Protein: HAD superfamily hydrolase
Organism: Streptomyces resistomycificus
Amino acid sequence: MPVLVASDLDRTLIYSAAALALTMPDARAPRLLCVEVHESRPLSYMTETAAGLLTELGDEALFVPTTTRTRKQYQRINLPGPAPKYAICANGGHLLVDGVSDPDWHVRVAARLAEECAPLDEVREHLLDTADPLWVRKHRMAEDLFAYLVVERELLPEDWVKELAVWAENRGWTVSLQGRKIYAVPKPLTKSSAMREIARRTGAELTLAAGDSLLDADLLLAADRGWRPGHGELAEAGWNAPAITALPERGVLAGERILREFLHGVRGA
């Protein structure tokens, strides 16, 4: 039976220049590989060592990129190693099979959201009414499933995020602050449900996972073993669980460590 490895991407395996967190002298910094280009500019990186580890992992396990990104945003990423058979996009709203969204899965997700949550339009209207243009740079809808804001963090009132979280909770939604983005996501829209579906289809009996944000918590809890880096929402909250390992590494070196842990887990199985 294959081992299924479901990993978040941004700030878990791949990193923007601002998130690299390289603290050593420049001459000792690791060599980096660009894995995403957007509008002709390099955008995301991993270390060359991590790229080699990911290639090994793709050869030895069922590696499933698992992201809150839309399909279009995910498809900008060029990960090393074998092309993944499966990928999870839009926080579980789309399950890609050989790069194509499974329509039956998406219909099931949409039906559950309609039944259990306040509509997206209501959430979008609330964001437009309450977010201050002084610190909001962009309003975005993602795949007609959830919404997010791009903000200036230094100007963002902390109480506003807390108030939004309470408002969203009462309507079946959750809020996550990740870097310069504030996500409002329906509670049933989860990475874990898509991971379980892939495990069912493939017969995987062991699942491993990694992630750094509140939106990754359900994925980590659903896996047999999970890892989180020393940065991100989960680290800041001191979040942990019995099968979760909190790693000390921060930034791009955390991505390298996570891939080593995945390989150890796969080979130990």
Observations:
- Residues 118-186 form a domain with the Gyrase A; domain 2 fold (CATH 3.30.1360).
- The chain has a mean pLDDT of 96.
